[in-house]
Amino acid sequence: MELCSSLAVKRWVFSGRRPGPVPGVRQEEARLGRVPVRLYRPRARPRAALLLFHGGGWICCGLDSHERICQYIAKESGSLVVSVGYRLAPEHKYPAAYEDCLSATLHFLQHLQHYGVDPARVTVCGDSAGGNLAAAVSQSLAGSSHLPRLRAQILIYPGLQALDFNLPSYQQNRGVPLLFRERAVYYSLHYVQGDTSNLEEVLEGSHIPPDMRLKYSKWVSAENIPEEFKVRGYKPHKPREFKPEVFERVKRICEPTLCPLFAEDKIIQQLPESFILTCEYDVLRDDGLLYKKRLEDNGVPVTWYHLEDGFHGIINLFDYHGLSFPSGKRGLDKVVAFIKSL
After folding, report:
1. What is the mean pLDDT of residues 23-36?
2. Tell me, what's the pLDDT at 89?
3. Is 128 a catalytic residue?
């Protein structure tokens, strides 16, 4: 009936119904500078803190959609959880979401005494697009001498590159819910340019100049994916002819603050201990595998957990109106165990 946009419907669906409070966790609304946040304080005084950047393709979800996850992490890990309500695209295009997450993190690190947490035990975390934001914030703070160093980064099925949408996982899981291959590009383009024109060209690789593709192929290539992840229907893909006019529209898509896989080694080497969760049936699986390799190649300790029966968004369905999956709960518990080990 065209009473509202498909984006409005999507936001309504993904926002979900806000759950009630849980025993042992106190919640409060606050701001870190100009960025709205929601704090989740466990009953015992927390010594560690986790800043969580929600997923949703940069265009949907928010504080309410991730409340169950935040409540669970705060209660089970004993950490102060800070859920960050960054601005959404397409109303606020890139780099708005990244700038909000970085600003909130900087403000938190500069005012740690107000929260009573150990300066050496602050971690950033995110799922999907939030994992992208967590990785970008970690890189931006790498090597900072005037702020406490992040203790760790937790990346849950993160999207980390926009160079190649024909890696094995993109081919194998192109039609697997909750994230189709075309949707991955749809979200990226909404974030970068505010609309989805040039979607087909980006899917087929016409948006990347040959010299840039060659430069980044050492980091983003099917050759860097372990062979066991290629047996399920992968065929090498040759990008279509480069179209300069498309690149001009989407060229910011290749900046490291949007594509953390493109960061130079000198940045990667300074990153904190990392936890990466991937799912077998997820187009973003290979983004996580490629980043795992880059981190390990540069001497960064990595804890990797792969859900062999998992799909994109499975963690977000935790305790969600009867749609929760045992493997999603298992993945979330691995995240909690990692936090408690820090």
Report:
1. 97
2. 97
3. yes
Q: In what order do the strands lie in the sheet with 35-42?
A: 25-32, 35-42, 80-84, 49-53, 122-127, 152-156, 273-281, 302-311
The answer to whether 137 touches 109, Cβ cutoff 8 Å, is no
Of these residues, 100, 164, 282, 287, which one is catalytic? 282
Kindly report the average pLDDT of the chain as a whole number. Answer: 95
**pTM check: above 0.90:** yes
Q: Is 211 one of the annotated active-site residues of the chain?
A: no
What is the Cα–Cα distance from 100 to 86, expressed in whole angstroms?
Answer: 5
Active-site annotation holds for 312? yes
More reliable by pLDDT, 146 or 7 = 146
CB 24 within 8 A of CB 42: yes
Cis peptide before 95 (omega within 30 of 0): yes
Residue of 65, 79, 83, 128 with catalytic role: 128
- For 55, the token pair is 């997923």
Q: Provide the 3-class DSSP secondary structure of residue 124.
A: strand
What does the DSSP assignment read for 89-111?
TTTS-TTHHHHHHHHHHHHHHHT
